[in-house]
Each structure stands twice: as C-alpha cells, then as structure tokens.
Amino acid sequence: MFKREKKTKFYLFGGKGGVGKTSMAAATALYFAKKGKKTLIISTDPAHSLSDSFETKIGGEIKQLDKNLFAVEIDPKKAMQEYKEKFTPELEKFEMLKGFGLDETFDFAGSTPGIDEIAAFDKFLQYMQSKDYDIIVFDTAPTGHTLRFLSLPDILDSWIGKMIKIRMKLSGIIDTFKKFLPFGDSGEDKKIGTEQLDAMKKRIEEARRILSDPEKTSFNIVMIPEAMSIYESERALQILKEYGIPVKHIIVNQTIPENPSCHFCTARRNNQMKRLKEIKEKFKDFQIKIVELFPEEMKGFKMLEKLGKKLYD
Amino acid sequence: MKEENASRISFVTHTITGVLAGYLSTINQFITSISYMIVLLLVTGYATEFIVKQKKGVKWWLVNGALYYVILWLVSWVFFYNML
User: Fold this and answer.
1) Which residues 6+ apart lie within 8 Å of A34 measured at CB?
2) Residues in chain A within 8 Å Cβ distance of B46
3) Which of A116, A196, A209, A220 satisfies CB 3.0 to 4.6 Å to A249 for a cystine?
C-alpha cells in the first residue's frame, strides 16, 4: 500500500508585541487538533510564551500536548549547539584545527552576529519541510523580528549563491593545479564543499515556494483596535506583499464588549469603534475577524478552546 | 592492490627519498635545495603512482606520502647539516 502524502497547511501569526499572537496561534492549533488534524505549533519568538499559554513546559524538542497536538519552541542557542554537533565531525578531519582548539574556533564562529538567527531559521526550514503534520502553526515574534526572519531566504540565497560561485571558481583553479600533481585528476572530491550549500539553497527555495503559496500558507495579522497597532500592521502588510507572502485574515483582538454601566469601558469602546471603522476601510481586501476581550485570562486548554471556537466556528 | 599495501609502498618510497632529499639539500644553497626537494617529491609521487597503479587522488598522496616526505626532508636536512 502507498502511504498518502500529507498536504501540510501552514498558519503564521504576526503582529505588534502584546496583541495576542501566541493566544491566537495556540487557539488555532488546539482547534484543528480537536478537529482530528495532526497539528504542530512552533514558536519562533526568542522570548517564548507558548509554554505559559498552554500552562505546560514545552522546550526545544517536539512535545505532545494532546491527542493530535504537538508543540516546540525553537531555541536559537540549542539550534546553534546542533549546528556545532553537525559540523564537528567534518572539522575533526583537519588535525591542524585541533592544535588551535576546536571549541575556541567554533565559539568564535558561534559569536558571529546573527548566527543564532540563521541556526533558528535552519530549524524553521526543517519543520517547514516536514510531511508528518496536517497543520503547522507558527507563533512568530513581534513584527520587526518576524519580517527580518522571513527576509532571511533572500539574504541567505544571495549569500549562498555567491559562496557557490566562489567555490566553483576556486575549484576550477585547484583542479587545474591538481592535474600536474601525482595521483591527481581522480575525478573525486569535485563536488565536496558545495553539496551542503546546494542542499541549503534548495531548502530555502522550497520554503520560499511554500510561504508564497496561498493554498498552503496563510499569514494572519493580529492587531488591537489602536492607532499604533494599525500603523504597524499596515507596514507589515506592505513588506509581506513585497516578499510575496499571502495574508488571509486580519484578527482584531481585545475589543471591549458593550457595558453601559461602566463609563470607562464605554469611552474605551467608543474609541475602539472609531479605530475599527478605520481598520475596515484600510484592510477591506482581507477577511477581518473581531475577537472580544475575555473576562478571564487567556491561558490553559479550556480558554484556548473557547477562543478557537470564536475564531473558526 | 590493497589499500594497506598502497599506503605502505607510498610511505616507504617517500620516507627513503625524503631522507635522500635532506642529504642533497646540505650540499646546495637554500633556493636550490628547495627546488631539488620539490622536484624529487614530484618524481617520487609519480613513481609511487606507477607502482600502485591506482588514481587515489591528490589528498591521499598528501596524507600517505608527501607529508612524511616533507617532515623527513626537514629533519634529515637539519641532521646532516649539523653532522657533516
């Protein structure tokens, strides 16, 4: 029997800090898991709050939270450690490096600015190409960090492209030189060095294809009906459009419910209604979902289930 | 030819010629010595390739022959320079 290949769908949640991205992502993951879909929720935010949302310790390894629900928090430090383990056997071939202290060499490489982000992005790519889940939900970091994260395919692609070109040029010179040496021109070793770069390039291209496919990916912008959040979401939308990442839903969170007996609540609500009108005008091309502020704190399975139903039923 | 035998042959030929190159270096000037060393290394390499009859690659030659040759050339050069 052939095993049917799963068509994984990806849900990404982004927005300004503190608007409720984690709650929305967690509620979405739980909703689909309860519907019988095998779901994985991944936090790419370096300041993880997924564990707090589900009220259980998650960590850097995939953990099963419910029958169909799995979760993981990408830890840049752990991802960097895995990078180190992946490349140490390769480096051990070079005896000379041992003399200088292999760990020191790697500590130096590991302290390059942005390397933890690249290691985390590599993890992100691994999960993106996973065929084990029906739904993968990404709880991303606040807008600026996420947009930088999503721009990494472009940056890495251009960097890897240049690296491959340099490697090819160098190997051309070395191969010519090798022909004059004994045992030269054996035909082996020619691809060594570019294989890993080629594989990384392919993974980036695949991730880019998935991210820009509206059938597979849905980026949801979470905001609150306040000016600052609206402006930031507008900017984020513009940048996402440039990257070709399709945005499906705009989720307006924390709207205050009607309560005529509370003057403060009424004043806040009136202000939010004005902003809501502005949101409906500015984002008329998108599906807007309005979520009212809950009287209870949004954490734990029970509350997340309630939120999931509000969002999708 | 077995891998072990090929390595042994390469080791022996490069060791002998390495010592020989070290001795020859003592009777010449520095630049000439270096040139002799390189020429003799290449000749030894091609001779080993002819004996082994396998294209094992430059890396294999560097690890199994050239490295020993260079070390022994240097050591024996210093040794003969001081002894003779």
Assistant:
1) A66, A68, A305, A308
2) 182
3) A220
Q: Residues A35-69: pLDDT tens digits?
A: 999 999 988 877 788 999 999 999 888 999 999 99
Residues A165-205 have pLDDT tens digits of: 787 778 778 777 777 888 876 555 555 556 766 777 777 77
Q: How far is A159 from chain B (nearest CA, A)?
A: 28
Burial status of residue A130 (CB atoms within 10 A of its CB: 0-12, 13-18, 19 or more):
middle
Contacts of A185 in chain B (CB under 8 A): 55
ipTM attached to this prediction:
0.74
CA distance B52 to chain A (A): 10
- Say how far apart CA A53 and CA A154 lie, in whole Å: 32
Q: Do A183 and B57 touch (CB under 8 A)?
A: yes
CB distance B49–A187 less than 8 Å? no
Is the CB of A183 less than 8 angstroms away from the CB of B42?
no
